[in-house]
Amino acid sequence: MKKNAPLSQEIAIVTGASRGIGLAIARRLGRLGARLALCSRTAPAVKQAADALRSEGIEALGLPADVSNAKSVRQFVSRVHKDLGDVSVLVNNAGVGIFHPFHEIEEADWDRVLDTNLKGAFLMSREVAPQLIRRKRGHIIHIGSLAGKNTFAGAAAYCASKWGLRGLAGCMAEDLRGHGIRVSVIFPGSVHTEFSPHAGKDPARMLQPDDIAHVVEMLVLQAPQSFVSEVDLRPTQKP
Fold it and tell me: What is the CATH number of the domain that holds 123?
C-alpha cells in the first residue's frame, strides 16, 4: 500500500473477519492503507481471508480467536501488538444469531449469542483500550443491527445482545472521549450474507457487506474534532 494512503500509519483489528461483513470491512481498511489483524473462531477460514487480502497487496495477519473467552482475546491482542504494534482501530463485528421464540431458547444458545455479540465486544474493547489511551486517539466501531432498536418475534436472544451492545457503546464513548477515542455503532438492516436466512427477501434489494464497509470508512476518516455515535443503515428499497 502507498505510504501516503490515509490509514498508512494505522493498525486495525477486525473480528469475525473471515467472510461477509467482516471481510468487506477488512478489505476496505486495507485498501485505505491500514495494516490488518483479522480474527475468527476458525483458523483455516481466517488464514484464507488473510491470504486473499495479501494477494491484493494488503498487509494482513490472520489468527484464530474466541472473542467470548478472555484468555483467547488476551492472547490474540498480545500477538497483534507483538507483530504489528499499537492498535488504533478496532471493529467489533463477530456475531451469531439463533432465532427461536424466547420460551424455546436453550440456555446454551442464549449464552452463545450474548457471549459472542455482547461480551465479545466488551472483552476485545477492554483489551485494546489501553493501547488507544496510550496513543490518545483511535476508533472503536461496533457492528450492531437494527434489531438493537426494534424487536421482532423469535429474536429474543439476538435483540437482547444488540440492545445491550448499544448501551455498552454509549458508556464506552463517555469513558473514552476524554482520551481522544471515538466509539461508534453501525445499525444495519438485513444484509445479504450467509449469517441468517432471509426468506422471501430479494437479495438484490438488501444491503450488501460493502455498504457497511463504506460507513466504517466514513467513520475512520472523519475530522478529529467530532464523532458519529450511531449510524442507522437501510436499503433504499425494502427487500
Answer: 3.40.50.720
Distance CA 135, CA 78 (A): 17
Enclosing H/E stretch for 164: helix 156-176
pTM of the complete model: 0.94
Sign of CA dihedral 98, 159, 203, 186: negative
Residue 63 domain-assigned (yes or no): yes
Q: Residue 168 belongs to what domain range?
A: 11-233
In angstroms, the first-to-last Cα distance of the chain is: 37
Q: How far apart are CA 73 and CA 75, in angstroms?
A: 5
CB 223 within 8 A of CB 204: no
DSSP string covering 56-68, please? TT--EEEEE--TT
Residue 197: band (very low, low, confident or very high) from pLDDT cuts 50, 70, 90: low
* 111: its cell numbers: 449464552
